[in-house]
Amino acid sequence: MLSPMDMPFPGPDHLRRQLEAHIQSLRAAGVEWLPLGALISMAPQSHVPEAPLSVPVAEVLPCEPDADTKNEATLDQRRQALAVLAEEVKKCTQCAALASTRTQTVFGQGEPGVELCFVGEAPGGDEDAQGLPFVGAAGQLLTRIIVGCGLRREEVYICNILKCRPPGNRTPLPNEAANCRGFLDRQLELVRPKFIVALGSCAASNLLNTTQSLGRLRGRFHDYHGIPVLVTYHPAYLLPHRSPEKKREVWEDMKMLLTKMGREIPSKG
Q1: What is the residue-wise DSSP string for 146-202?
Q2: Which of 119, 86, 82, 123 has its CA nearest to residue 101?
Q3: Domain that holds residue 143
Q4: Within a domain: residue 16?
Q5: What stretch of H or E contains 215?
Q6: Mind giving me the DSSP string for 89-147?
Q7: What CATH number has the domain bearing residue 216?
Q8: Strand 33-35, strand 195-199: pairing
Q9: Reading across the β-sheet that carries 227-232, which strands appear in turn?
Q10: C-alpha to C-alpha distance for 188 and 265, rounded to whole angstroms
């Protein structure tokens, strides 16, 4: 029986293929930097250049994978990467007030690769209890909006600016939104929706980095990293005790969205 030292060493082509496969899986999971170990050299130690602490993944493997390989694993790798990111969110304690009062984090709901994503403000009491976004009264109304557009809730992705419930359902603070921004950007990068709907002024201002009012943002499309974004009222604002008359305006927004998506506008009758 051969000892490990006697076994044939893999050739450079085999090693490169293994390295490429590993780096591609890291890139799909959202890893952008890798730690770089000390350089191996036969030269005297004084001639070995100092190594940087980390190196971009793109420099480790600058070449793009062929189209077949890239398309084959994309959805599965993105789904796994979202699960990894959700676990990271669960451990987050950057916002002490939120981490100490939450029941659990509320990451998002849906599958990567969907055409449409809804981004809200923050979880409420029902969401904090169930760990899912938009499951309370506002969530039921959002579901009716989605169905009214000729879609099913399972066909869209839903998430929030914050992943924790603010105490008393207050509006998220600027530093809380900033702390959660990295999670949101990575989440949307993995989901890769073709269109985004920002629900309410808080979601719109944070997602688009703007101070414009919801009234000025409505009625036109905006841009988030190349993705068209439509701004409309938050479903909670449409509930009976608030401003149910705004439902008509939301439907006008949804018709604009469906036209942009190239979808038929369902009849309201």
Answers
A1: HHHTT--GGGEEEEES-SSPPGGGPPPPHHHHHHHHHHHHHHHHHH--SEEEEESHH
A2: 123
A3: 69-261
A4: no
A5: helix 214-217
A6: HHT--SSHHHHHH-SS----BS-TT-SEEEEES---HHHHHHTSSS-SHHHHHHHHHHH
A7: 3.40.470.10
A8: unpaired
A9: 156-160, 116-120, 195-199, 227-232, 221-224
A10: 26
What are 16-53's pLDDT values in tens digits? 555 565 565 556 555 555 544 443 343 444 444 444 44
Encode pLDDT of 63-85 as tens digits: 444 444 444 448 999 999 999 99
Q: Residue written as tokens 């976004």?
A: 133
Asked if pLDDT for residue 232 goes beyond 80, the answer is yes
- 118 in a structural domain: yes
Note whether residue 196 is domain-resident.
yes
Q: Please check whether residue 43 lies inside any domain of the structure.
A: no
Q: Which long-range contacts (CB under 8 A, 24 or more apart) does 61-69 make?
A: 61/19, 61/20, 61/23, 61/24, 61/27, 63/20, 65/20, 65/24, 69/24
Number of domains in the chain: 1
Burial class of residue 170 (count of CB atoms within 10 Å of its CB; 0-12, 13-18, 19+): exposed
Contact 160, 119 (CB under 8 A): yes
Tokens standing for 209?
């980095």
